[in-house]
């Protein structure tokens, strides 16, 4: 199943929908005596939303989940407005995934470190190797190789579970032409090692710190990759200059000092976290300054190159994106594609992979004379990654894209480790989506008894237009037979000028009028303020769905929900009207504060909602008030 919480994934309640869906599905499966499905949950809000806080709370969320109600679930952040397209048509699950190197995790660093300590008395070797070198004994090389095989094998197993039958991916990572203890890859780390040794001799780094430090990276040979992936597709090999800004194919280094700086900055972007966590942040600037000088001297001998590999599996970083793409040009041009950049979606280069894939696909489609496919990108990194910065740069990224190479694309953030499961098996496309209201931008502060018919009609027409567009977009995204459940505030009758819904905004309006009379709010500000919300009747919703002809209504239901979110009782008695007034005011403030503060300014908020709470408390002396909630279960036609 796929669940999408559209437009309300912010604040402490962002994971509440996910929790409710998980528990409900688990309960139903237990009653039916069947295993639970895998559930993928998309949390959608505008790009300015704080996704970081949501993703960092996932660990606590998992710990709190009732083990008896646990079902497999996968969470992704989806920046954007649900009034536009959020997913590719029918979410075709064939995959293009990106990964930039096979890295052993911190636990494996510890294992390697312990092994070196245990065997150093029996084996003669140079102390202080941070990577595999000429003096490294065979058992050290074998240990690195075995860790690569284990990690890469796990990666392939998880990817096999996630991809649909016939799905494809391309893998690119740094490799070795032959034995890793020789060649340019060895020098890459030896030059960093030399800088560390110099700092040890000058007393800037503790010798014990250096001896216990290992670079947890392994660059496999083509044969080693083949051994793990016996059933893999075509394998290829290419070279790329150490300097990421050097595109030339000759062996001449134009400016060895500048190239040394470029390479050092590039490696610092990758290695700084592990170095600073082991040695401390104080040595980082000095270390990479020395490293840049070492590289510059090494490049006087000529260019040094990475050895890259790709197979019909995953796309890599920066310039390594381009060499494997030609294979995709011939094989991966369906109507819709899914691309996942796994494990490296942080920093300013995050959207570079997206850009390169879009341009390459657009070029190939133009040459083939066919329309481009829709592309969905999953940007994956650990939950502590800064996803906010990425999502907030999307508007700039879209503006920057060349219109000639434009391909429809949709971006989601995927928090988690690619050494574990990230997607449901075969990406099952049937959908369950949650929506909480349709926003408008016209009318009074709210529809009331004195509102003329044209105002009511204007609100109603805006709802019909917006809801119709919403259904059109969801129809494009859902697979044939896909289903979704819509829930939103509604009205018991078509006339919105009566009933409790009128009072929820009327009492806020009363507080604003009082503040106008006391000179705390400008009269003109109040008269041009509109609450952009419409609560349709059951008949109005049904009319739009049937008129569109895109969905069948499987079930529709209406129920009442107390204004006070903490009051679960079914009677009409309000136990504490003052407390309930405060609860309701806080709930409405969470929804309406951005709108009110942007119009009136933040200075009135505390006073306004204090008065609003008192107004609600007095209103509740008459008895409980309820929201009218509409629920529609829809199934896609065709």
Automatic annotation (TrEMBL):
<dbReference type="GO" id="GO:0046872">
    <property type="term" value="F:metal ion binding"/>
</dbReference>
<keyword id="KW-0808">Transferase</keyword>
<dbReference type="InterPro" id="IPR029063">
    <property type="entry name" value="SAM-dependent_MTases_sf"/>
</dbReference>
<keyword id="KW-0489">Methyltransferase</keyword>
<protein>
    <submittedName>
        <fullName>Anthranilate O-methyltransferase 1</fullName>
    </submittedName>
</protein>
<dbReference type="Pfam" id="PF03492">
    <property type="entry name" value="Methyltransf_7"/>
</dbReference>
<dbReference type="GO" id="GO:0008168">
    <property type="term" value="F:methyltransferase activity"/>
</dbReference>
<keyword id="KW-0479">Metal-binding</keyword>
<dbReference type="GO" id="GO:0032259">
    <property type="term" value="P:methylation"/>
</dbReference>
<dbReference type="InterPro" id="IPR005299">
    <property type="entry name" value="MeTrfase_7"/>
</dbReference>
<keyword id="KW-0460">Magnesium</keyword>
<dbReference type="InterPro" id="IPR042086">
    <property type="entry name" value="MeTrfase_capping"/>
</dbReference>
């Amino acid at each position: 199943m796929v669940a999408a919480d559209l437009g309300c994934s912010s604040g402490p309640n962002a994971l509440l929908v996910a929790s409710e869906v998980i528990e409900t599905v688990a309960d139903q499966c237990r009653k039916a005596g069947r295993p639970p499905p895998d559930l993928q949950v998309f949390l959608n809000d505008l790009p300015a939303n704080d996704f970081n806080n949501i993703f960092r709370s996932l660990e606590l969320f998992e710990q709190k989940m009732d083990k008896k109600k646990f079902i497999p679930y996968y969470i992704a952040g989806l920046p954007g407005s649900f009034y536009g397209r959020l997913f590719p048509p029918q979410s075709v699950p064939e995959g293009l995934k990106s990964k930039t190197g096979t890295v052993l995790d911190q636990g494996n660093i510890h294992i390697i470190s312990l092994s070196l300590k245990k065997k150093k008395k029996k084996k003669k070797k140079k102390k202080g190797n941070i990577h595999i070198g000429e003096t490294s004994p065979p058992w050290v090389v074998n240990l690195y190789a075995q860790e690569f095989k284990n990690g890469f094998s796990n990666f392939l197993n998880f990817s096999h579970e996630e991809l649909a039958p016939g799905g494809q991916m391309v893998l690119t990572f740094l490799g070795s032409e032959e034995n890793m203890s020789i060649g340019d890859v060895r020098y890459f780390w030896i030059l960093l090692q030399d800088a560390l040794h110099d700092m040890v001799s000058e007393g800037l780094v503790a010798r014990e710190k250096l001896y216990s430090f290992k670079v947890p990276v392994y660059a496999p040979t083509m044969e080693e990759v083949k051994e793990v992936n016996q059933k893999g597709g075509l394998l290829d090999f290419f070279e790329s200059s150490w300097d990421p800004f050097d595109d030339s194919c000759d062996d001449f280094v134009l400016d060895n000092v500048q190239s040394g700086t470029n390479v050092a900055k590039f490696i610092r972007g990758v290695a700084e976290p592990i170095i600073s966590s082991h040695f401390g942040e104080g040595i980082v600037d000095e270390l990479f300054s020395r490293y840049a000088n070492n590289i510059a001297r090494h490049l006087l001998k000529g260019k040094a190159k990475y050895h890259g590999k790709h197979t019909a599996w995953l796309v890599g970083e920066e310039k390594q994106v381009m060499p494997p793409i030609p294979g995709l040009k011939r094989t991966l041009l369906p109507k819709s594609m899914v691309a996942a950049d796994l494990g490296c979606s942080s920093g300013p280069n995050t959207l570079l992979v997206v850009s390169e894939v879009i341009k390459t696909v657009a070029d190939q489609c133009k040459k083939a004379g066919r329309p481009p496919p829709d592309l969905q990108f999953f940007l994956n990194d650990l939950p502590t990654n800064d996803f906010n910065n990425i999502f907030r740069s999307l508007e700039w990224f879209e503006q920057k894209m060349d219109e000639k190479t434009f391909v429809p694309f949709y971006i989601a953030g995927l928090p988690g480790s690619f050494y574990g499961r990230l997607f449901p098996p075969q990406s099952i496309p049937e959908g369950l989506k949650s929506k909480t209201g349709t926003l408008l931008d016209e009318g009074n502060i709210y529809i009331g008894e004195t509102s003329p018919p044209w105002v009511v009609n204007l609100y109603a027409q805006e709802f019909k237009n917006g809801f119709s567009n919403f259904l059109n977009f969801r129809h494009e995204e859902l697979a044939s037979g896909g289903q979704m459940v819509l829930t939103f505030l509604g009205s018991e009758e078509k006339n919105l000028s009566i009933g409790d819904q009128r009072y929820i905004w009327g009492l806020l309006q009363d507080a604003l009028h009082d503040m106008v009379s006391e000179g705390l709010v400008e009269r003109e500000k109040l008269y041009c303020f509109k609450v952009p919300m419409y609560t349709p009747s059951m008949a109005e919703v049904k009319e739009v769905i049937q008129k569109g002809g895109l969905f069948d209504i499987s079930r529709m239901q209406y129920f009442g929900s107390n204004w006070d979110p903490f009051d679960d009782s079914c009677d009409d008695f309000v136990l504490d009207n003052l407390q309930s007034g405060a609860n309701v005011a806080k709930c409405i403030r969470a929804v309406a504060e951005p709108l009110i503060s942007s119009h009136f300014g933040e200075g009135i908020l505390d006073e306004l909602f204090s008065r609003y709470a008192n107004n609600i408390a007095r209103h509740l002396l008459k008895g409980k008030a309820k929201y009218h909630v509409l629920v529609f279960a829809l199934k896609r036609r065709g």
